[in-house]
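Long-time lurker, first post. I've been practising inverse folding by hand and with some scripts of my own, and I keep getting stuck on stretches where the structure tokens seem ambiguous. Below is the full token string for one chain I'm working on. Before anyone asks, I'm not after the true native sequence, just a reasonable design that respects the backbone. If someone could post their per-position residues I'd love to compare against what I wrote down in my notebook.
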């Protein structure tokens, strides 16, 4: 099974990236700092994808993104020559952009396809680990080759491809998902996943599509993204924990750029301090 990983991203631009982390939106960063953090996230994510050695690594960036700036940024990768390619989406809604990225690689299962299966990965997942991606592809291949996967793939009418259907996803906060993978014979499209009129979460929408089409579905490692201040607060101790664990587990790849930027800026995470009543009983703060 030929595999591909697509990192789905915006080209970093001041005032256009991670704005909910900025002071203007209730966060702690300036627009310039928010851009710097996203660049660190993105490079750490790409390095993790390349280090996984699980398939060709592609980057799909926003239609209006500055390709020249992106190319310059990518020279900071550990192994920039290991990228398979870079392409831009065609604009439109997030659903349409993600669909275009998937179609660019899988090409509806035609002989011109660039891979048999792919993982779509967000650029704001600094805790992403190479072995998460390896395990995701292993699970995808297993469920796709199950009797249910082979049956579901028949809906695509690709009888010349001996590969079943399957979906794997890694969930994140607020009912979303940060990683999704599927095969070229999976009857899945992204219409209504991120943009719908019923208030359905992206994860619920994806699950419902799997149910409707009877596509085998697998859960993979939860990898949180970083959109709002509370996400960043959760990220800091997790990255520190991964950095320590990496001393004892060679599979773990610390997010060095993100950690360095956190250290440079002196950003730490704190929590409410419990207080005690007169009897010495510990009480949780409601602040």
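-- Answer (accepted) --
I ran through it position by position. Result:
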């Amino acid at each position: 099974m030929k595999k591909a990983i697509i990192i789905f991203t915006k080209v970093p631009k001041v005032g256009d990236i991670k704005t909910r982390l900025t002071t203007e939106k209730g966060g702690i960063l300036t627009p310039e700092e928010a851009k710097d953090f996203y660049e660190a996230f993105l490079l750490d994510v790409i390095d993790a994808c390349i280090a996984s050695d699980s398939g060709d690594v592609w980057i799909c960036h926003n239609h209006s993104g500055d390709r020249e700036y992106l190319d310059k940024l990518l020279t900071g990768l550990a192994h920039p020559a290991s990228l398979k390619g870079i392409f831009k989406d065609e604009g439109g809604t997030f659903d349409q952009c993600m669909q275009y990225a998937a179609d660019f690689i899988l090409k509806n299962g035609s002989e011109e396809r660039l891979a048999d299966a792919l993982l779509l990965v967000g650029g704001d997942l600094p805790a992403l680990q190479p072995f998460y991606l390896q395990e995701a592809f292993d699970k995808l291949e297993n469920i796709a080759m199950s009797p249910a996967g082979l049956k579901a793939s028949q809906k695509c009418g690709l009888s010349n491809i001996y590969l079943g259907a399957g979906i794997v996803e890694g969930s994140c906060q607020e009912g979303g998902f940060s990683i999704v993978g599927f095969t070229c014979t999976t009857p899945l499209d992204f219409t209504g996943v991120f943009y719908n009129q019923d208030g359905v979460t992206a994860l619920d929408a994806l699950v419902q599509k799997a149910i409707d089409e009877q596509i085998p579905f697998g859960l993979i490692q939860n990898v949180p993204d970083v959109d709002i201040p509370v996400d960043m607060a959760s990220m800091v101790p997790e990255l520190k924990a991964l950095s320590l664990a990496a001393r004892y587990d060679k599979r773990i790849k610390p997010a060095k750029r993100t950690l360095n930027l956190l250290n440079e800026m002196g950003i730490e995470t704190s929590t409410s301090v419990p207080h005690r009543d007169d009897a010495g009983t510990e009480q949780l703060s409601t602040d």
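A couple of notes from the structure itself: The chain has a mean pLDDT of 91. The first helix runs from residue 31 to 52. Happy to go over any region you disagree with.
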